UniProtKB/TrEMBL annotation:
Residues 106-172 form the Cell wall-active antibiotics response LiaF-like C-terminal domain. Pfam families: LiaF-like_C. This is LiaF-related protein.
Length: 215
């Protein structure tokens, strides 16, 4: 006997619906405009019946290959390779950046005086579940970008500065946790997700469509 729709967790219903939307869009069952409109509706409403109604006319159901592609896209990148390479970014009256696909060590150091630093974990490969960022920012501007499936904890002394942690910090227990420690003095630090949830779903749908050769 199936559980009544209204008794199911709403986020599970929402994710299953979005999966079916993406799968049918990638097979050109619906247009890009229809996909985006329905995706918006699925993300905005908390009515399970309205969410499910968005895919009632779609014939294709997701398969194991789709689930595998989705897992590889949305699961944090982990590597069994261990590197002792130290990641240290120093900016004195200048700018520094670390982005792309890079190997994340246990500790990262940011030293910024009257400069700017950007540290991007979006495509980074994690070696450890717990990562520490040691930060010293004096009259500087630092930005840290993270994926949605990474937790962030800030333990900072803020002296006439600005610290904004816009991360969700609600990833599951197996997700990496980044702890930021140090000082921000008359400077600014912003921690945020580089891409919104909608942008990630749209990007995944387009990449799957291209993979299937239907673009």
């Amino acid at each position: 006997m199936e559980v009544k729709l209204e008794d199911r967790p709403i986020e599970q219903v929402r994710e299953e619906t979005i999966d079916q939307l993406i799968y049918n869009y990638s097979h050109m069952i619906i247009s890009a405009e229809a996909f985006e409109y329905r995706l918006d509706e699925a993300m905005q409403t908390n009515d399970a019946h309205k969410i499910v109604a968005l895919v009632e006319d779609l014939p294709l159901k997701v398969d194991t290959k789709y689930q595998s592609e989705k897992e590889s896209q949305f699961t944090p990148n982990y590597s069994h390779q261990v590197s002792d390479e130290e990641v240290s970014l120093s900016s004195i009256l200048g700018s520094n950046e670390r982005s792309g696909k890079w190997l994340v060590p246990k500790e990262v150091t940011i030293y910024d005086i009257l400069g700017s630093t950007k540290l991007d974990f979006t495509d980074a490969v994690f070696q450890h579940q717990h990562v520490t960022i040691n930060l010293f920012c004096l009259m500087g501007s630092d930005k840290i970008y993270i994926p949605e499936n990474v937790n962030v904890v800030t333990q900072l002394l803020d002296v006439m500065g600005s610290v904004e942690n816009k991360s969700a910090s609600m990833a599951n227990r197996q997700a990496p946790t980044i702890t930021i420690k140090g000082k921000v003095i008359m400077g600014g630090l912003v921690v945020k997700v580089k891409r919104t949830t909608k942008e990630k779903w749209m990007g995944f749908a387009d990449s799957l469509k291209s993979f299937l050769g239907t673009s």
